[in-house]
Design goal:
This protein is an alpha/beta fold and 347 residues long. It contains 14 helices and ten strands.
Length: 347
């Protein structure tokens, strides 16, 4: 898989013009959703490189990360005359960069694309690392490919367009990166208020460096890249269950998944209880809780069985022995998972 260039931008217009110029192309397509069309496209539309760009607009939120939307994007690319030498710019949050990256990776067997993440979640997670895809059959990111963008441009100017909930959604992934890296990074994150304080480009760059280091070592998730799934086995189950009821933001689901999986860390791999409780207190204070009952346990466990890390009928987790002490390919029985879900409800 080709190397991915990550640009920490202080001038989004200059960075975009240079990135587009570096990618030879015959046509330029820009994928936006209805929100980024209004809030983010005006920040870049006057760039010289954008003068001949052709827009493709899709619905916003994860409910549109579907095969129907993907088919629409392919049809628009075809209608606009895109060739295998065309270039796609994905301007949006994780839904746009995931779906747009997949559309670009498969159209005419693959065209080049650039990601410009406009949410904190997509800056620190979705847009970096080459994972693309869509939801399918009620399951998160069920269909997709690994394929790096030519470059990813990170600019915190876009964060000024975001509301509190979306800032918190991205911050959950930052917290996860802290847990899998160093105690110092984790401590800084749990002592910071993402709602009342400004997230700087330096914070974003430092956080993204954790993911970059891991995905460079393991691009297609055969080993250590599974560290990035901390909180996600349970988190994706929460998110898929919510899609059946009232959708929640991805980062909120990850935060709830971290509570479940940090409990398993304490029980199964000796993770320090004080660090677990401090992290759980931070999550409860900022993210609240998704209401579940014991009656939801069978469905949540069923959804965990669909996790892509699983082998056979065993549910796999990424757990920690301590901050930064990563234990991939860990298993838990259904009784242990139910115990962890009890802790989530009662903590």
């Amino acid at each position: 898989m080709k190397q991915q260039k990550v640009i920490i931008s202080q001038n989004i217009r200059k960075a975009l013009d240079e990135a587009v110029a570096a990618c030879s192309h015959d046509r330029l397509l820009v994928l936006v959703d209805e929100t980024t069309l209004k809030a983010c496209w005006p920040l870049v539309c006057q760039c010289p490189s954008m003068h001949d760009a052709q827009l493709i607009t899709i619905g916003c939120t994860d409910t549109h990360k579907t095969l129907d939307t993907l088919s629409f994007v392919w049809s628009e690319m075809q209608r606009l005359g895109a060739t295998r030498h065309s270039l796609m710019v994905n301007l949006g949050g994780g839904m746009v960069t995931d779906l747009g990256g997949f559309a670009a990776s498969t159209f005419k067997r693959g065209i080049a694309y650039i990601n410009i993440p406009t949410t904190l979640l997509s800056m620190v997670d979705a847009s970096v690392g080459g994972k693309t895809g869509i939801n399918f059959g009620g399951l998160k990111n069920e269909i997709g490919v690994f394929n790096n963008a030519c470059c990813v441009i990170l600019d915190t100017e876009f964060l000024h367009t975001m509301d509190r909930e979306n800032i918190l959604s991205g911050y959950a992934e930052m917290l996860k990166h802290g847990l899998i890296s160093t105690k110092e990074r984790w401590s800084q994150l749990v002592c910071f208020s993402p709602v009342t304080s400004h997230i700087t480009s330096e914070m974003v760059a430092d956080n993204v460096s954790v993911k970059q280091h891991i995905v460079t070592e393991d691009p297609t998730e055969h080993g250590i890249r599974k560290a990035l799934n901390l909180g996600h086995t349970a988190g994706h189950a929460f998110e898929s269950l919510a899609l059946e009821r009232q959708p929640i933001l991805h980062g909120y689901a990850v935060a709830y998944g971290l509570i479940v999986e940090l409990y398993l860390c304490c029980v199964k791999t000796g993770f320090p209880t004080d660090i677990m409780r401090q992290t759980v207190a931070f999550i409860k204070e900022n993210y609240g809780r998704m209401a579940i009952t014991c009656d939801d346990y069978p469905r949540l466990i069923e959804l965990m069985h669909h996790d892509k890390k699983n082998v056979g009928n065993t549910i796999n987790f990424t757990l920690l022995g301590h901050v930064g002490d990563i234990r991939i390919d860990q298993t838990a029985t259904e009784d242990e998972i139910k115990e962890a879900l009890d802790f989530y409800r009662e903590c």
